[in-house]
Design goal:
This protein has 190 residues and is mainly alpha-helical. 52% of the residues lie in helices and 6% in strands. Strands 1-2 form a two-stranded antiparallel sheet. Strand 1 and strand 2 form a beta hairpin. Helix 1 runs antiparallel to helix 3 and helix 1 runs parallel beside helix 4.
């Protein structure tokens, strides 16, 4: 019998947080193997390079995580559009951010999902539910990870598989990724 936490409305958010951490780790590992110059090389996408795209994910995660935690960082989050010059700088910064999101989502209760989040923007404060804000962050990041994945196709490094984190049948492909985080299948399915 398969057990699913779908009766818990926070379950999808915990799963998406773990997916983001794992997908970012795979993407950063691939980028760490790039030849000199490929990380910052101009590419066709919304942002002009792997460096700019992956830095954007980190910046926007900082922006929204601050908001869901009640902060007022707002547009100051993107004052430096490239806070991490190298993959070696970016990977631990994004990893720490991803762990913060996992911990945050692990602490959610159903009642939290309707809580108002005040997102400080230039000249206004946007108010959204926590559920909608978190879903937006996960979809935003997935969108840009997909762009980075496509950009890797034009490099010396094969793009990594980014979608083997939910299906039970894919467990054989993610064991090394989970072990690197000190996780097992139980931790992934929390």
């Amino acid at each position: 019998m398969l057990v699913c936490g779908m009766s818990d409305p926070c379950y999808p958010f915990r799963r998406l947080a773990r997916n983001a951490l794992l997908a970012n780790a795979r993407l950063h590992a691939a980028c760490a193997a790039l030849r000199p110059g490929e990380w910052e090389a101009p590419r066709v996408s919304f942002f002009p390079s792997l460096k700019a795209t992956l830095n954007h994910i980190l910046i926007i995660d900082r922006f929204y995580v601050d908001a869901v935690q009640g902060g007022m960082l707002g547009p100051a989050a993107w004052a430096d559009p490239l806070p991490c010059a190298t993959v070696d700088d970016l990977a631990p910064a994004q990893g720490a951010m991803d762990r913060t999101v996992v911990t945050f989502c692990d602490g959610l209760a159903a009642v939290d999902l309707d809580r108002a989040v005040h997102i400080h923007r230039t000249g206004r404060v946007q108010t959204e539910t926590l559920a909608d804000t978190l879903m937006h962050v996960f979809l935003h990041d997935q969108h840009h990870r997909g762009q980075a994945h496509a950009m890797l196709s034009g490099t010396s490094v094969k793009p990594p598989q980014l979608d083997e984190f939910f299906m039970a049948d894919d467990a054989r492909f993610r064991g090394g990724d989970l072990a690197a985080l000190g996780w097992d299948e139980t931790a992934l399915r929390r």
